[in-house]
Amino acid sequence: MSTTPSDKGPNTRADSSGISFTALYTGAVWHRHGLSDDTLATDQGRWLYHLMTPFEAGSKALIGGNIRTFLLQRHLIIDHLIDQALERGITQVLEIACGMSPRGIRLRDKHPQLHMVEADLPDMAARKAARLLVAGHLGDRHQVMPVDILADAGEQALAAVVEIAFDNNEPMVVVTEGLTSYFSLPVISDFWQRLARVMQQRPGSVYLSESYLMPNQPLLRGSLKALGGLLGSVTRSDVSFHFLNDEQAAEHFTACGFPSVAVHNPADFYGRLPIPESRNDPMVRVIEAWS
């Protein structure tokens, strides 16, 4: 994830510099757990992984899960849901805010005929494309493109990127992993509404993302709000917990224009997927929405 919000004013534009370190840390987690390619490993990511280890250990002891737990839960569940969509016949995937995600490499290895498009703000997209190009991963069926999810028009706007990336009217899978929590609910809802309209032009399309629920326990809720405020200051973003429960999340996505919505709890995949388990109810949910 490398996209920062531009909801601080009408003339403020998003850039990838503010939270690029979160993309590097996430990439290091994938690599450390055997999910990533050496192509995407970075020295900064490894340093951040070691730096975060004491905090991660304390978090797991306190709440029964930590950032790494939730990252692995969401990532592997999203992969599982993508596989299900591809088994139904979808042949094209767009991953927005791709950062150092290894998903494109893994999907293309598993599904050679898949048309994979990774997208991010220009700086991160250029970094990702350079690494994939050197490793020989880029080609007609694996591309990297710049995108600005906050743009209403122009060549980096969502609708334009989809039109250029997939020159057809076939259904697609759209993934935004590690993106939406860095925006306030009104700002990201505008993106969801535009995405729903784009997907309606391609019936059968699937959108996959994650959301973090705000816990009910007052002390934990206060601690997480403080942590979110700190992360928001560092990343120049508006870190937000958008929903209190699954029902609220589903209703909101339906209101944004997605006719069918499923909210997946990682606990439902324990024993079915090789994901780490949380001691309590996981904070993360995976959203699956259809056009």
Task: Please provide a written account of the structure.
- With 291 residues, this protein is an alpha/beta fold.
- The protein has nine helices and seven strands.
- The chain has a seven-stranded mixed beta sheet, with helices on both faces.
- Helix 1 packs across helix 2.
- The radius of gyration is 18 Å and the shape is globular.
- The relative contact order is 0.15.
- The N terminus is likely disordered.
User: Number of DSSP strands?
Assistant: 7
Structural class: alpha/beta
User: What composes the largest sheet?
Assistant: 7 strands, mixed
Shape descriptor: globular
The SSE order reads HHHEHEHEHEHEHHEE
Task: Identify the strand order in the major beta sheet.
Answer: 3-2-1-4-5-7-6
Mean pLDDT across every amino acid position: 82
Provide key terms for this protein.
seven-stranded mixed sheet; disordered N terminus; alpha/beta
Write the layout of secondary structure elements.
Blueprint: H1 20-32, H2 43-63, H3 67-87, E1 92-96, H4 103-110, E2 115-120, H5 122-134, E3 142-146, H6 158-165, E4 173-176, H7 185-200, E5 206-212, H8 218-235, H9 246-255, E6 260-264, E7 284-290
Parallel strand pairs: 1-2, 1-4, 2-3, 4-5
Antiparallel strand pairs: 5-7, 6-7
Helix pairs in contact: 1-2
Q: In a nutshell, what does this entry contain?
A:
With 291 residues, the protein is an alpha/beta fold.
